[in-house]
Amino acid sequence: MRPYEGYVYAYPHKTAYRPLDPRPPLRDVWEGECADALFLYLHVPFCEMRCGFCNLFTRTGAPAELVAAYLDALRRQAEATREALPAARFATAAIGGGTPTYLEAAELTRLLDLAETTMGVDFASVPLGIETSPATATPDRLAVLAERGATRVSIGVQSFVDAEARAAIRPQRRAEVEAALAAIRAAGFPALNIDLIYGIDGQTPATWRHSLDAALAWRPEEIYLYPLYVRPLTGLGLRAHDWDDQRLGLYRQGRDHLLAAGYEQVSMRMFRLPGGASGTEYCCQTDGMVGLGCGARSYTSRLHYSFEYAVGVRHVRAIIDEFVRLPRDAFTVANVGFTLDDPERRRRHLIQSLLQAEGLDRALYKTRFGADVLDDFPLDEFAGRGWVEEDSAHVRLTPEGLAHSDAIGPALFSPAVRALMGSYDLR
Ligand code: SF4
């Protein structure tokens, strides 16, 4: 089993979504759902440049008029959504992308106003996370975010070695990265997260250690270690098997280094300082999410939905151009999605829980689904490899299981989801 099949950040993946026909009104979609502790996600699909490893929904070089039109469309969407969910209360919020700080300070203010006044989020009591980049984490933007109560700022550094950043097709200078980190710390956010990438062409244990130590010098509350997923095109041209070995080796090195530095492992990718800033815990297995923006997903217990999905430049541009022209009425329905039946809900709960270091709580699963998880999903194959262990309370991944999360997650997809993903025409 290859260790790097795919990153399961949500189940099912958007490529399993299909156009909904007829398109259900949001009011019906949310009927009967528990809506008193929702997650509000705002998607900003703009970046200064396209990183070579990126497969997210984003476009570069958006002119100011397009950004303004996008914020206008978000307001129409927020109004229509609020009308359909009048009783919704939000327990947590995040702004992702893209690069949300592609927005200027005044545009960020508009976005946060919209979340507060239209969606009713109270940032004084609700944790707010936002993603940023070295080039856009400027003091004026950070001041807006700090003043509005942002609790977590996540910056994609990827590598503190300039040549590696170039190799990953993300040109940046170390001095710019350090200045951005200093500005984030100076703004006083409770939590800083730094993203790093391993598996870059030319990266060695020594240069990886250099990046890890450079990140640790800021004592961030969280660090994410991401394996690179886009094959290096330059230099040595590693064979697939060697690249897997390189990534597994660097993963183990990074994990051990962060554990020795006092961090705890939350998942294959996430490490955090114990006792760090925490807000309301959002439980992704069970809670609902309202996504605003053309790349955002929304989750109820029965339906996951979004707008159309694309990665290719031309298609992303076309989808954004269409989104900004949509009238308010167009936002009252769900467009594309995936309906979760009971077996898929069980499977989702399994996947999302098992890939966390603390593992799956068997009693919680039984309360929710009336069965023992191992009766529903015998995990013998993974247990046989030494990747899964169980006791009376939990089923969890072993350290080697966590190292192979990107093999285990995709292997747990249902045949139906696998078929939908396989037949998706990725544009
Ligand atoms: S900054 Fe993030 S979203 Fe933008 S292109 Fe790079 S990886 Fe993709």
Automatic annotation (TrEMBL):
Q: What GO molecular function annotations does the UniProt record carry, in alphabetical order? A: 4 iron, 4 sulfur cluster binding; oxidoreductase activity
Q: Which UniProt keywords apply?
A: Oxidoreductase
Q: Which GO terms describe its cellular component?
A: cytoplasm
Organism lineage reads as: Bacteria, Bacillati, Actinomycetota, Actinomycetes, Streptosporangiales
Domain of life of the organism encoding this protein: Bacteria
**Protein name, per record:** Heme chaperone HemW
Organism for this UniProt entry:
Sphaerisporangium krabiense
Gene Ontology annotations of biological process type: porphyrin-containing compound biosynthetic process
Task: Give the NCBIfam families listed for this entry.
Answer: PRK08208.1
Family matches, as CDD domains: Radical_SAM
One short Pfam name that applies is Radical_SAM
Keyword Oxidoreductase assigned to the entry: answer is yes
Residue stretches making up the Radical SAM core domain: 32-269
